[in-house]
Amino acid sequence: xxxxxxxxxxxxxxxxxxxxxxxxxxxxxxxxxxxxxxxxxxxxxxxxxxxxxxxxxxxxxxxxxxxxxxxxxxxxxxxxxxxxxxxxxxxxxxxxxxxxxxxxxxxxxxxxxxxxxxxxxxxxxxxxxxxxxxxxxxxxxxxxxxxxxxxxxxxxxxxxxxxxxxxxxxxxxxxxxxxxxxxxxxxxxxxxxxxxxxxxxxxxxxxxxxxxxxxxxxxxxxxxxxxxxxxxxxxxxxxxxxxxxxxxxxxxxxxxxxxxxxxxxxxxxxxxxxxxxxxxxxxxxxxxxxxxxxx
Length: 295
What we know:
Elements: H1 4-12, E1 30-34, E2 39-44, E3 57-60, E4 66-68, E5 72-77, E6 83-85, E7 102-104, E8 110-116, E9 126-128, E10 140-141, E11 148-150, E12 158-159, E13 167-175, E14 180-190, E15 192-198, H2 205-209, E16 213-216, E17 222-226, E18 233-239, E19 247-249, E20 252-254, E21 257-258, E22 265-268, E23 274-281, E24 290-294
Parallel strand pairs: 6-14
Antiparallel strand pairs: 1-2, 2-3, 3-4, 5-8, 7-12, 8-11, 9-10, 9-13, 13-14, 15-16, 15-18, 17-24, 18-23, 19-20, 19-24, 21-23, 22-23
């Protein structure tokens, strides 16, 4: 560190040019000179009356930017993808006999965090989970050297949401003793869009689970290419809640037929969630390679 007099001497040496009229801007703080670019840095607060005055930002000459010194959570993750297949109470799900709605057990989630202007201070950072986490898990500590934490027991079992589009949210709380910060990470649950080929003239729920393409998504639309073999029909199946579709091949609208009178099949996915599905089948089998636009 240096003082203003030293910086004036540096100016005279030709390393930095400072207008004397601007010197008062930096007289309240301490200074650093970057000899690589000639930029002068001043440590000061945006609010001179605050408890952190003079230490929460580093400004550089001209006020063209600053480096924040305020403590904050830089990143927080739960080790999961942002979306997951929704499950339910049926036995194919990942739950147990005592909790068939369980998404992940209390030893399966792992969290990772990093901090700006850390490290965090006591009390150590902690995670608050979904409402089904019991009081014993309300403050899952992230106090290891790398700020990682894993769920530890059935107290942190996490259940599926009750409906498609539901979320499970985990919130990290941390402080450096002066400034506190929170950051949340969420997993959203959707059902699958299922497309594929089958020689069957109609599909059961088990048949839908056997189709070759299954994508966890909130959308039914897309462009799909099929190459049926002999006697194979093209099938497109998705949540009935997304509404009916139109189909285009080569820019021309085409008709695919409904499988049942009410145009729906009660479908249970591989994670045990059940809801009505629209299932469309090509009128003919053994077609040439066909690209279908669904909208």
